[in-house]
Design brief:
- This protein is an alpha/beta fold.
- The protein has two domains: about 210 residues, Rossmann fold, CATH 3.40.50; about 110 residues, Helicase, Ruva Protein, domain 3.
- It is built from 14 helices and eleven strands.
- The strands form four sheets. A five-stranded parallel beta sheet has the order 2-5-8-1-9.
- β3 and β4 form a beta hairpin.
């Protein structure tokens, strides 16, 4: 696990040369990458969403493509299309921008539902079917989507099937005044993203993704995850709770976070740190509750307070359950 932590810290430090003061958010982006998941960044314009995607791609030496989602964007503009070649008298497939290792889906909620649906197969099955032929996505494959939570004019709300395919949702937020001064100083002559160097090869990344799967998860932690997700389905303010895909996302993200922190086992604090980014965007709040300003984030925080780490409530909140105090056999 020290190798995961060492490489992760190297990538984290490299990205933070550009994204200043957002240590936790950048780490969550790496968690999604190590889990082979996808990331949704929901924030106002100008907070560094695009720069974060570029910095990650450059740090890993991955191919990077940006798709600007607009109402007139077609599914073929995303996945690609077959073009007739007059010389060979055959149709040739021209791959779309989705056939890249790191894809930025900018302002994803500005595209029509028909175009948004073109991402469903790509994100889940990691393949695209065009004219009856299936093309595999490259490996690694990460979709980083952005959307503005304030401006709704000319937008189309993401369907639940689309939201559920994002492993984590984060918000970058505005920097502190001291951090903003540092940003101004660093961009005096040129943008720091232009100076980002490769610090982790794609081969190292694939090895890390495989190693993360070996991080030990105690049965007590798995039960805690299931009870948290189950509680979201029974909460009085929730119309639709998190799906089993949410449980898997929380489980995998816990493994990745533990690995980045240098541990070969998951503790309850890992899960607690990930519940909000992993589950909040999967909840649909009842209309009657939304009127009273009840939101998914508030519900998730209530779930954390009301759900004990152990079914019997014996373990302290944030502490390690007794089962984790001894090394597990076979690790």
């Amino acid at each position: 696990m020290s190798k995961i932590q060492e490489t992760g810290d190297r990538v984290l430090a490299n990205v933070e040369r550009v994204i200043v003061g957002k240590h936790h958010e950048v780490r969550l982006a790496l968690v999604a990458l190590l889990c082979r998941g996808h990331l949704l960044i929901e924030d106002v314009p100008g907070t560094g969403k695009t720069v974060l995607a570029k910095a990650i791609a450059k740090s890993l030496g991955c191919t990077f493509r940006r798709i600007q989602f607009t109402p007139d964007l077609l599914p073929s503009d995303v996945t690609g299309l077959s073009i007739y070649n007059q010389k060979s008298q055959e149709f040739e497939f021209r791959a779309g921008p989705i056939m890249s290792q790191v894809v930025l889906a900018d302002e994803i909620n500005r595209a029509t539902p028909k175009t948004q649906s073109a991402l469903l197969e790509c994100m889940e099955e990691r393949q695209a079917t065009v004219d009856g032929v299936t093309y595999m996505m490259p490996d690694p494959f990460l979709v980083i989507a952005t959307q503005n939570p304030i401006e709704y004019e000319g937008t189309f709300a993401l369907p639940e099937a689309q939201l559920d395919r994002f492993m984590l949702r984060i918000r970058l937020g505005y920097p502190q005044p001291v951090e903003e001064i540092l940003i101004l100083d660093e961009q005096k002559r040129r943008h720091p993203v232009d100076e980002i160097a490769v610090v982790c090869s794609t081969e190292e990344l694939r090895a890390m993704q495989a190693a993360v799967r070996e991080v030990y998860v105690d049965p007590a932690i798995s039960e805690y995850i299931v009870r948290l997700v189950g509680a979201s389905r029974q909460h009085p303010d929730v119309y639709l709770g998190a799906s089993p895909r949410g449980s898997i996302a929380l489980y995998r993200a816990g493994q990745a976070l533990a690995g980045l922190l240098g541990r070969d086992y998951v503790i309850p604090d890992d899960i607690k740190a990930l519940v909000e980014p992993a589950l909040a965007h999967r909840l649909i709040i009842k209309t009657s509750s939304s009127i009273h300003d009840v939101g998914p984030v508030q519900v998730v925080r209530e779930l954390l307070e009301q759900t004990p780490v152990e079914a019997g409530g014996r373990a302290a909140i944030g502490g390690r359950p007794p089962e984790l105090s001894q090394p597990a056999r076979g690790r």
